[in-house]
Amino acid sequence: MFKTGLNVASKRGFSSSAIRANAVYGTPKSGPYSNLPFKVKDRKFIPFGLVWWGVPGFFFLFPFMSSYWQLKKSGSLDPVPEE
Question: Mind naming one GO cellular-component term on file for this protein (predicted)?
């Protein structure tokens, strides 16, 4: 009893064939960088390296830039006049 139930449950029941699914989705691209969800080569506007290093660089420098701005606005960075 358990043997037949396990045998039925272990079978894979696809409703369509791989050939039919291929007609809907097409064949996947092949070659380097084809499996990535973003474009690495031949970018038109911003080079990939600039985005790759610019985003973490901006988020690293943001607290320093904002604290400098706030200190400059408050006058804490102005030199103290000599008397």
Answer: respiratory chain complex IV
Enter the pTM of the model: 0.48
Residue 67 lies in a domain: yes
Neighbour count for residue 48 (Cβ, 10 Å): 13
In this predicted model, what pLDDT tens digit does every residue of 5-57 receive, in sequence order? 555 556 666 666 666 666 666 676 778 878 777 777 777 888 888 988 999 99
Which range of residues forms the domain containing residue 52? 48-72
**Exposure on the CB side of residue 12, measured as CA atoms within 13 A:** 3
